[in-house]
Amino acid sequence: MARPEPERAELLRWMFERLRAEYGVRPLVARRAPMHELISTILSQRTTHADEEAAYQELLTLGDWDTIIEAPTDAVAHAIRRSNYPEQKAPRIQATLRAIREQRGGYDLDFLANLPVKDALKWLTDLPGVGVKTASLVLLFNFSRPVFPVDTHVHRVTTRVGVIPRMGEQAAHRVLLGLLPPDPPLLYELHVNLLRHGQRVCTWTRPKCPVCVLRERCDAFALYGNNVPSFGEQKAGGGRQKANGPAGL
Ligand code: SF4
User: Fold this and answer.
1) DSSP-assigned beta bridge partners for residue 240
2) Mean pLDDT throughout 99-114?
3) Of 184, 36, 43, 191, which is closest to residue 113 (Cα–Cα)?
4) Which residue of 15, 195, 202 sits with most ligand 1 atoms within 8 Å of its CB, as the best mutation to test the pocket?
5) Domains of the chain and CATH, by start
6) What is the mean pLDDT of the chain?
7) 147 alpha carbon to ligand 1 midpoint, in Å?
8) What positions does the domain HhH-GPD occupy (predicted)?
9) Beta partners for residue 234, in sequence order
10) C-alpha 164 to ligand 1 mean position (Å)
């Protein structure tokens, strides 16, 4: 049975402390300019960080944003070929750039710092290639706004531990944010440390439960011990489902 909300909020706080002890304090400092963050996050979908960065740098060899909008879409797709699904991402990037230029007369996103968070999220997610994860990353990382980006790692770890029931990543944004304080440095540190934990320990297949600092309060570990199944193979109540079924525990 799902934990009551106050218990889930307390569990998240406990996870924050455990992960800080394991991975350290992570100060909130913008890692790159807002437009770089926005376009790179679109490129990052299903792509390693090295390939995402290589695709971004080659995209810039086409010229400035105006030039990229006007370039043949095939040329944009070729430039970003190190990223997965370049044929889908290229027209999205061009459409996103075009929409920003049309609405703002340029590519300066600093106005997002002063919009109410709800309006800033809406403005970004109304762009053609931008979902709630990308919008949240830009708002938190670049403008220290109190939102919580949920990527595949954050989603998997929080679901397995039992902070959230099985749900999609989109819904998880809203639910997890509702459990967290509006504290950007905390939100940032929890995001990056959950991501790191998901990459290193609570992996999609064969999570390394024996060395996990979260295992004493983890629902999946309580249910399966050291044999927690692949994320897509697990469902609430301990049964199994097909790997390509709905989002698993
Ligand atoms: S105990 Fe296992 S399933 Fe639970 S968070 Fe840690 S690695 Fe993931």
Assistant:
1) 234
2) 97
3) 184
4) 202
5) 5-26+150-233 (1.10.1670.10), 34-143 (1.10.340.30)
6) 92
7) 25
8) 43-200
9) 240
10) 14
